[in-house]
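Hi there,

I know you've been waiting on this one. I reran it after we fixed the sequence typo, so this is the corrected version. Both the input and the resulting structure follow.
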Amino acid sequence: MLREGYDQTDIADKLETSNSSINRELARNSDQITGEYHARLAQMSAERRRKQIHIPGQKIAENKDLKEVVESRIKKYFSPEQIAGNLKNEYGKTIVGKDTIYAYIYNFAPELQKYLRFQKNKYRKRKGTKQREKRREEDKKRRIDERPEYVEKKEELGHWEGDTVWSKDKQYAIVTLVERVSGISLARIVPNKSAEEVNKAIILLFSKIPSNQRKTLTLDNGSEFAKFEELEKILGIIIYFAYPYHSWERGANENFNGLLRQFFPKGMCFYLQHQSKLQRCINLLNNRPRKRLSYFSPLQIFSCCTS
């Protein structure tokens, strides 16, 4: 059709495909010098590319020394996992993974299958392991409906809510803690949202609060709170978790995060900010009168109740 003078749009219509597909075919398989398209050369190029596609296990097949080591240990009835671990010990780094060894056996050396303990089915990565681990971790959590009713009614001081506020770069964050009755707030910038960094921040923030005024803490479901059991042990606090996407179950905290955005708006990179600036903002908010507190400030209510 090209030789007969058809343009790309006409060819695409005739072949019932998109114009962009024809354009890609011509760009990929035309002669790089003359710019002409020859069907035979295009076919040869396509077949060559197909042969170059990586096949799982090819790393071993193309490395003579590694291939000999793997095959000799397989024949001694080492499992692929044992071989991978053994090589890592010998060289001090990962040389090849067990999945690659399995792939080599099934794709390049099927005669070695007889040395495997399980020979009936092709090895496959176990699906769902991470999901099961996640489910086990979820099962450890106390949900908010297990929390005493008097906490919901705000009948006593010492019950807190916690969350994190993201930076624009999705790395730095601000850990926020809010006491439910008084509304007094604590906050600290962390360099990332890892559970370790968040725990450090929470422990440091609560170190300023008397132990009898940190009774419970209700958290969001983020992975940054995965090590909550460590917090319970160190702080002597009982931790509950709101249900996923139920932000209203931590209403005091959500409201405070909104107030904090006045000073740290969305789109701001927190790594440019300092803890001293954050603390000045927290002091302003803790001393600001609130309507729900009959226009007393959170600091006044908290100080009155703890004195």
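Quick highlight: Residues 8-51 form one domain.

Best,
R. S.
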